[in-house]
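S.,

As promised, the 3-methyl-2-oxobutanoic acid run. Input:
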Amino acid sequence: MTVSNSPASVDASAARSQKDRILIFDTTLRDGEQCPGATMNFEEKMQVAEILDEMGVDIIEAGFPAASVGDFESVAEIAKRSKNAVIAGLARANPKDIDRAGEAVRHAKRGRIHTFIGTSPLHRQYQLQMSAEQVYEAVVMSVTRARNLIDDVEWSAMDATRTEPDYLCRVVEAAIKAGATTINIPDTVGYTVPDEFVDIITMLKERVPGADDVIFSTHCHNDLGLAVANSLAGVKAGARQIECTINGLGERAGNAALEEVVMAIKTRNDVMPYWTNIDSTMIARASRLVSAVTAFPVQYNKAIVGKNAFAHESGIHQDGVLKNASTYEIMTPESVGVRASSLVMGKHSGRHAFREKLRDLGYELGDNAFEDAFVRFKALADRKKHVYDEDIEALVDQEIAQANDRVKVLALMVIAGTSGPQKATITLEVNGKQETAEATGDGPVDATFNAIKAIVPHEARLPLYQVHAVTEGTDAQAEVSVRLEENGKTVTGRGSDTDTMVASARAYVSALNKLAIKRDRVHAQSGGTAA
Ligand code: KIV
Ligand code: ZN
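Predicted complex:
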């Protein structure tokens, strides 16, 4: 997929002062993907990395190479493919992790090793079981080792905001002396508040020798809903890199949302005279893609990218917007890539028109993927009177997300109604081989899932089953999210179709495919210095 960059924004950026430039470090593929249920497969990661690269993200944290062979391979491939961004790989403070990260980013035009260790008393005592002195030594060892592999090294003081100020200054100084070029001050548990965070960054910049030679970075979690406010406070105190994710994805309540920090800086440039290299018109597209591949729906009232972010329902608001949009809009929908929903085309539309429409929506598919998408579009146009942009996006996002899946839904027949038992007959493709099974259940969804289970046996629990309509009307496509949990591992799958049962089957199978990825992944045991 290729989405055009905006030369205008790049030119404008070039003219501005470098000291006011805020580097955007996106960690959707690492911290975002790490959150329960947001697992992405290899192809999905490539898609996300591509759009991040094109929209002007400065540093893409592509993953945690030591976590599994799959993680290593996706970081290495993103490193090879990236055109503009620095590609970072995460590493704990141990030689194995650092070497693995160095190896993964070796082929990037510009690679970075991002190494971290917990510095707070809680992390030192309980998680790492190391003394302050041992952690200090691990900082020196890890940064020195990383610098021997690569010039660009970021060091993070995990749980920095709960670390004793004097000790934090000491370890930051040690990391700078050992060669770190970026110092990240994470608010790992989303505990700090803006004024306190200003004081922490100000203290480090004033007290630590060598602070002027490195870039300070923020990495704020959203447990108290303050991640964006804290990140911007950090910038006010002199930080020049913000770590964030698309849609605010991330551990627990998530990270600072990329779209929010970028648009806050852009919209309130009068009080925050900084700039980023992000082409904001690509934000809506990136948000939709990340939501589609992680199967994490974006809440309707989410700032910038929620469905209601530019919707005006009350009469007074509508009246004002019609007279002058600025009465109730502080930024235009177009500035973040949101367009009015438009009628697309019908069943008589040909390949050429379909390809043009895809380009217009920001997709550039390869020949095979295009043919598959076209066939599905035709089938959809046969069943649905009006096909909207959102329908095409749901259809293509699913195509992209499930292109390389091991298990695919080929056919489904369901008997539903008031007199049970409800029955489902499903045909799946499993590793290229067709298999059919029949099952009954407590309702058509249960019957469908039982039939899938008969072909792909598993013990996973189903903590969430959710249905949304993509557009309005009774012939709208249903978008189903299915969350599965197995041995503490959670994944979410999503499927769409005008038939809710078919969408449900696709979502369930997509979740099973993601569970297989999770099973293969050797989880990093803890955030410490594990060997
Ligand atoms: O939240 C955190 O502290 C992290 C570090 C690995 C940077 O994600
Ligand atoms: Zn984090």
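Residues 31, 116, 156, 158, 184, 186, 188, 219, 221 surround 3-methyl-2-oxobutanoic acid (ligand 1) (CB under 6 Å). The mean pLDDT is 90.

- D.
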